[in-house]
Design a protein that fits this description.
alpha/beta; 9 strands; 252 residues; single chain; 19% strand; three-stranded parallel β-sheet; 8 helices; six-stranded parallel β-sheet
Length: 252
């Protein structure tokens, strides 16, 4: 098994990050798996992601498909959205197996619960490549260094607050990208005695509606707070809070 990390650089580099992830996913993960099956006459590829409501995953599927077609122009690519439901993802994996997919690009929606899915795919003879998040037993994993990403994002927050303020981390599904990001963020906040972390365990479920619900809850529980780190990759997280503010709640 190999693991590749994309190193984050600065808080404003999210789009450059995503392009690097797509490149590494295509060249390292897909290319390596294709080499492993070099003697096969044909390949079938399955891709299951957390949610197609996230533009990041739409772009990732596009990158995977482009790289697959570059390696084998006639290769079929089957894609599916698990909507952060491990039961749904389990059914998708069974569908991939039944279709004879010999390579599965696997964005596990629950790290621990994904272990049986990985075993079933391996038992069918498929190569399993985890991307964006880890998956137990994957043949390869391609992610950003999410601990470092959390450290960079929250150091930026600490610097903007001049080391003093109340902050909130909006968490998400139990995937390694988020747990690592939160771990990195918390390590930075722990070194800043003037930073008061009000909450870090509220689950926004990786969706806009979930973010809105958590935002309303936070603004009721903590009427005075400063910035928020949302631990997912969605670029539109700020919009989740605007309706709550229009309802008469304030974040400052």
């Amino acid at each position: 098994m190999f693991t590749a990390h994309v190193q984050p650089t600065c808080p404003g580099s999210a789009r450059r990050f995503n392009r690097k992830i797509l490149l590494l996913t295509g060249l390292l993960a897909l290319g390596n798996a294709a080499s492993a099956h070099a003697d096969d006459a044909a390949h079938k590829i399955g891709v299951t992601v957390g949610s197609l409501g996230n533009p990041f995953f739409i772009a990732t599927i596009k990158g995977i498909t482009q790289q697959a077609k570059a390696l084998a122009p006639t290769v079929p690519v089957q894609t599916a959205s698990a909507d952060y439901d491990i039961g749904k993802q389990s059914s998708q994996v069974d569908s991939f197996i039944a279709a004879g997919n010999d390579l599965v690009m696997f964005n596990a929606v629950d790290y621990r619960a994904a272990a049986p899915l990985g075993r079933r795919m391996h038992a069918s003879g498929a190569t399993v490549v985890a991307f964006d998040v880890g998956a137990p037993g994957a043949d390869a994993t391609v992610t950003t260094n999410n601990v470092k990403a959390g450290e960079i994002a929250c150091q930026y927050i600490v610097d903007r607050l001049h080391g003093r303020g109340d902050v909130v981390i909006v968490n998400g599904p139990p995937v390694t990208a988020l747990t690592d990001r939160v771990k990195g963020c918390q390590s930075v906040f722990a070194k800043a005695p003037g930073i008061n972390l009000l909450s870090s365990n509220l689950d926004a479920k990786g969706s806009r509606d979930g973010g809105l619900a958590v935002g309303q809850s936070v603004l009721v529980r903590f009427p005075r707070w400063t910035p928020c780190l949302r631990s997912t990759t969605r670029p539109r997280w700020v919009s989740n809070w605007r309706p709550a503010r229009r309802d008469g709640m304030s974040s400052s």
